[in-house]
Amino acid sequence: MLFTAAMLLHTIQAVGTGSDSTSYHSPESDPHSVPPGQERTLVESVLVQLSILLRYKWLIIGLTTLAAVGVLAFSIVSLVLPPAESPLPNYYEASATLLISEDAGGSSARSMLSALGVTVSGGGTMDYGQVAQQVVRTRTFLDQLVEEHNIIDRYEIEEEVRTRSREVILNSTTVNYQPQTRMITVSYRHIDPEFACRMTNSTVNHLQEWFLARGGLTRQRELQSLESRILEVEEEIARLEAEIQTFQREHGFLDVAEIAERQSTMISGLQAQLVELEVRIRNQQRFSRIEDDPALARLRAERNNVVGLINDIENGYAAGGRAMPSRNELPELAREFRRLQTDLEIQLRIYQAISEQYEVARLTAESEPVFAVLEPAEVPDQKSGPSRAELSMTVTGMAFVGSIVLAYIIHFLRGIWADPTKKTLISESLRGGGSRKSEAE
User: At the N or C end, where does the chain have fewer CB atoms within 10 A?
Assistant: First the structure.
């Protein structure tokens, strides 16, 4: 690096004074000049650059030593002074590790993100880690920390109080999330290790309270929704039961299949009686010689009564305030009654399922913590920064390189000053610039 810088400056020197080596150096003025028609070898060029550096070695050593001593003194002073007055105080970082519950995520997290104004694309699940990173940056959350820890007075904020106090916390707080392990690391950086620990634990506690509050509201809304749905199903069940009772009361039976079977049995019995009466009537007509036989009239009356009963059963009738449907109406009544029973069974199943969900939701109404605190924050006893050793090395290295550059610049200027031709050209350029300026005025 040193050789490259030297060659670069040497090239700039050559370009700045001309392309011909004999035009800007004379053997008398520069002992390192090259006679016309000759070129330096690589070794000679290196030796020339080293000789220049050796000529200004005390400048390089002095500036580098001065910078090293200065940065060392600065580091010592920054350590001795109190952290509040030190120009470079030690910073301590307290961190806490959280683990997201396995059942966390999904629609609840997505609804929370939507409430925060964050658009979530896709239909996949959403982890609470992303929600936590957004919550920590919300104004409401930051204002709670500002008020709890008296940030305004601690940092003596007098202008733009809200904005600057929030920025103080945001600039010192870090929330890292690892989706693969569902781990969240919350850390706070400050010159006071105890304050850093308090801020970290307070941030974790407020995060848990935030999610508990939102989770409790979600479960409460879920319970209210289930209760409302249960009431709707109960009303539907009551309506269907009332329709079934009205149906049974109007048609005088409890079951269509039962009444159909009873009608078939009654008609079969009456038809058997009718056949028996027909046989008896025929026999009575064959053997009776009486013109108005009372026995024959009685048999005919019984036959007519049986035929009337069969017609009443087949066509339907009403007696005692109860109606008996006809045989032709039974299929339609059976379909209607079966529909009512099916609707009632479906509503009963829905009611049972919703009731089970309601009981489970009621038993788990107390919200479980979204995060499990694996490792709470503790007061750090080792600083997280700054690294004064790196600072000293960086400043010393930059001073060393800068002193080398300064040495080449001084050598370049001395070469111009020792060459009468260059000195005359510069003087004429300065005079020409001054005269043009006066003429312009």
Answer: C
